[in-house]
Amino acid sequence: MYLFVGLGNPGHQYKNTKHNIGFEVIEYFINNNKSIAYNRYLKFQGIFYEVILNKENNIKFLMLMPLTYMNLSGISVKQVLDFYKISSNKLIVIHDDMDIKVGEFKIKFNGGSAGHNGIQSIINYIGKDFYRIRIGINRPQDKNYKHYVLDKFAPEELIEINNLLPKLNLIIENIVLEGIEKTISKIGFLLMKSI
Q1: 137, 18 contact by CB (below 8 A)
Q2: Catalytic residue among 19, 95, 116, 147
Q3: Which end of the chain is more exposed for a tag (fewer CB within 10 A), N or C?
Q4: Which CATH homologous superfamily contains domain 3-193?
């Protein structure tokens, strides 16, 4: 069973900021997918979903938005993994990445945090062996990263993000149906299909 974790910070002031793109992906999936049934809970120090994908065999998976603030995300993630006895290679963390252009994403297994506090917190609690869906937010011109990630997307960037969200819906659904390795091998085909 897969656990998808969208990283972000709780609070209205952080909504639609670059650092909260992980929350946005989870919310978009839950609110815009007609092929699912779900139960929503406030537990594991986060907003937690048990989801059934109503295709073929009604496959169950989990989604989590930790409400611990970014730099403590690992606490919430570890609680879910321990409770459901999920191995870390079934964990997929969705987060912002300054090394990728807005509107693009990359899937990666293992590795360091690249300075991302949410990823570092998860590494601190469970190690490095998990998948990440890294969503591009561009690198700022100046070096003030702390303020940059808390900025909202510019209107032209928002267009790119709104085009990306349905593609990520398809990727998540395919991971649940066919597994992450098979999904990675056919990403180009899936993205062409979503146009």
Answers
A1: yes
A2: 19
A3: C
A4: Peptidyl-tRNA hydrolase (3.40.50.1470)
